[in-house]
Amino acid sequence: IAKEAVSRLELFDFVDDNFNGLPPLRRVMSQVRQHQGKTMVIEELDIKDADDLSEENAGLKTRFGSLIDSRAFRLSFFRKTCKTETEITDTDNGDFIGYAIIKHDDLPAGFNGIRVYESVIPASRHDNNFIRGEQEWTCSVGGNPLSVNGYLYAQQNGATNVCAHVALRTAAARFHPDGDMTYGEMNRLLNIDVRMLGGLHQEQMAEVLEAAGAYCTKVEYDATDPQSNQLPPFQKYLYGSIESGFPAIICFGTSSHNYHAIPVFGHTFNEDTWVPNAEIAYFQVGANTRYIPSESWLSTFIGHDDNCGSNFCIPRDFLYTNKFCDSMSTPG
Fold this sequence. Notes:
This protein is an alpha+beta fold.
């Protein structure tokens, strides 16, 4: 697709018509518009030539006994209008926005048969976004090798990988010597039989990250443990990790009695935030403190949610420790 201006409606119609209205892909399209995207190149990939896609298909065959059909497409996005293959091959990284690989598997009901297998789109245009540790990701578009910096986004299929796997993939890539960590590698490390795959617990997630080369700080807030009240707010752990250039993973309970994991790797600052001054002036918070930590001006964290999409801003106080969802009976 090559147009001087592509409307939001046209992009959403494209997602509806070709990819079942996939919400995370809609999110990708919105980010492409923010980056002034004018051209989208669509290529069907040969799964046999991609080791990670083939490995996943082997896992799906193990899980279900057979895999009827599997296809993958790469969507690549550019800031300039390209109407011929020659114009694509002459394009450099300055006009390359990023890419998304969509994988469509014929899976039983209840599993994610069509999803964003991976995508790298830089964070938004806002000047106060702070992200460190972004990797360079390279792909070949029409034979032209192009690269983009960012944190990889991925969506679970619920069969051979779950939300913890995709959060780990985003974080582990920052440390892994190969620059990425496959789901098959994670499952082999943890001795997981995909035929009985469930969620991953904290110790397993730490084991994966440490195998990739990371050093983990594990902190658990448990409403049944009084000592949890003595722990620093989890936002301070996130801030310190992000400032050091290392991603973190948040796990939280939901009203459906499940747990969800999301990676965070950036934050936004707002120098006009009123709260730090008001806390001292009106509420005597930190009255005996000689300085206000810079973390006080943090507005949101930047992270991915595999169910929703990439590069979302998460208000720093939206998630609470030691708090239950209304219909939950387990710690959040």
